[in-house]
Design goal:
The longest helix has 28 residues. The relative contact order is 0.14. 66% of the residues lie in helices and 1% in strands. Helix 18 runs antiparallel to helix 19. It is built from 22 helices and 2 strands.
Length: 490
């Protein structure tokens, strides 16, 4: 008897041993992604320095003779003397990386919807490793900056597709778990990078060490299967059945007689495949996409702004960077607890975390200059970071559930694209502290509050069936909660 995709996952296993291995591999990849994303925090760190003459030397050669750096690490600042009038180049390199992520999210999302998840993911990882080595061996700032731009393109695109794969290998009931685990591992990756930086003080060696794990991940990635959900949405029923058989065997089950019924989308061969324009054409998806784009923008703006600001805070550079990652770990159990409860769900939980993050940042302007450790801006910034990372965590899962399978990657790509605008602007916000030390936090706070209230306009997705096609969004079962399931989980 022909079965639907969710029924087939039920038979093969929703999160068996084989799926756990696939998920663990792609989740561990996030440590590599985090090292690439946060590279500039240590590689572009500005040590204390002293210029032993009055007036700032005009030429770089003259500056090299008179400047003395105090700290025992090297960075692009110490190698190419990016201080005073040249200081903006550090933030520029960071913004170029996020501009690359923007392009990667625009291109890789729709590409993987058309060509498949696996080939697009492997291609992205290959070029990520190549350009990562170019960064480490850059002979001058210009090559460094351009290489960071290209790393951004392939790193962002590859990370997006790998996230979708972790979702599509498992049953729908485990999407929130795998999504949260992915974001948790990214946070651990930030701390791992800080640890590497503590022991490897030469910036070129640090870049090489951070990039090399990508080679191992690349070689092992060829063993991954294609997404059964993508194959099914493309009408490749036989191939989807083969992957589900592979998953079932990996889960330790006997060979199953899995027969999938054609999806609604594949029954109409005469129509072209849904494209990214459907996000604008379809009224339900149009408003959903506009609101999600702003929420993603704010999450990225505040998240990366507070992370990059860790290098600007007082105290030990490596400890601040590590704490900015480790503070996200409590967000994982908080998310898992609240988003599965019928009285909170995805929407209310996201709203609360964004509003709390906003207030944590805004309150820094009311703190006295001599406030103790418990009321220090650094501690409130870490609280804001924990809250916004919790919101970011949920938004990935929530967005995946708000889009049908045929447009999920395109939807995630468009949202990630707007998110990168936040990343592009974030590196320049810490420099606003020249106006007042609290200004960057107030900017982050107001952004968080506005996004939190906008989230209330989105529908709840907890205990709703996953939409496979655009037509599914019209059905009544996709518009209301299934009361029976809601009661069971409460």
């Amino acid at each position: 008897m022909a079965a639907g995709l969710e029924e087939a996952f039920g038979a093969a296993g929703e999160f068996g041993g084989g799926q756990r291995r696939l998920t663990a591999f792609l989740v561990l990849l996030q440590v590599y992604v985090a090292c690439q994303s946060m590279l500039i925090v240590l590689v572009g760190a500005v040590p204390e320095y002293h210029i032993d003459q009055e007036g700032i030397p005009v030429s770089r050669a003259e500056l090299a003779k008179h400047i003395r750096f105090a700290d025992n690490f090297t960075s692009i600042v110490t190698e190419w003397y990016l201080v005073e009038q040249e200081a903006y180049k550090v933030s520029l390199a960071s913004s170029l990386f996020f501009a690359g992520l923007l392009i990667g999210n625009i291109t890789f999302g729709p590409l993987s919807d058309k060509l498949g998840r696996k080939p697009v993911y492997i291609s992205g990882l290959f070029f990520d490793v190549v350009f990562g080595y170019v960064t480490a061996l850059a002979p001058n700032y210009d090559v460094f900056a351009v290489s960071r731009f290209f790393v951004g393109i392939v790193n962002g695109g590859m990370a997006l597709v790998s996230f979708v794969l972790t979702q599509e290998y498992v049953g729908k009931s485990f999407w929130s778990f795998t999504g949260s685990l992915t974001n948790l591992t990214f946070a651990v990756g930030i701390a791992v990078y800080a640890l590497l930086g503590y022991y490897v003080r030469e910036w070129r060696y640090l870049t090489l060490v951070s990039n090399t794990p990508g080679v191992i991940f690349l070689l092992l990635s060829f063993m991954l299967p294609e997404s059964p959900r993508w194959l099914y949405s493309q009408g490749k029923i036989a191939e989807a059945e083969d992957v589900l058989q592979y998953i079932a065997l990996g889960n330790g089950k006997e060979r199953l007689n899995i027969k999938l019924k054609p999806s609604a989308e594949t029954l109409r061969k005469d129509e072209s495949a849904p494209g990214i324009l459907n996000l604008v054409k379809h009224p339900v998806l149009r408003w959903r996409t506009i609101i999600l784009m702003y929420i993603w923008y704010v999450c990225s703006f505040v998240y990366y702004g507070l992370t990059l600001n860790a290098g600007e805070l007082r105290g030990n550079l490596y400890l601040n960077v590590a704490l900015s990652g480790l503070v996200e770990i409590p967000a994982f159990p908080l998310c898992m607890f609240f988003i599965e409860k019928s009285w909170s769900g995805r929407r209310k939980t996201t709203t609360c975390f964004l509003i709390f993050a906003g207030f944590a940042c805004v309150f820094t302007m009311f703190l006295p200059a001599d406030a103790g450790l418990l009321l220090s801006p650094a501690l409130l910034a870490l609280c804001g970071k924990m809250m916004v990372s919790a919101a970011f965590n949920i938004v990935y899962i929530y967005t995946s559930e708000l889009y049908p399978t045929v447009l999920r990657n395109a939807g995630l790509g468009v949202c990630s694209m707007s998110c990168r605008f936040g990343g592009i602007l974030a590196p320049f916000v810490p420099s606003m502290k020249s106006l007042s030390p609290s200004v960057p936090f107030v900017v982050f706070g107001i952004s968080g509050l506005s996004a939190g209230f906008l989230t209330l306009l989105l529908p709840e997705t907890l205990n709703k069936p996953i939409a496979e096609s655009i037509e599914d969004l019209q059905g009544p079962k996709y518009q209301v909660l299934k009361d029976k399931e809601a009661e069971e989980t409460s």
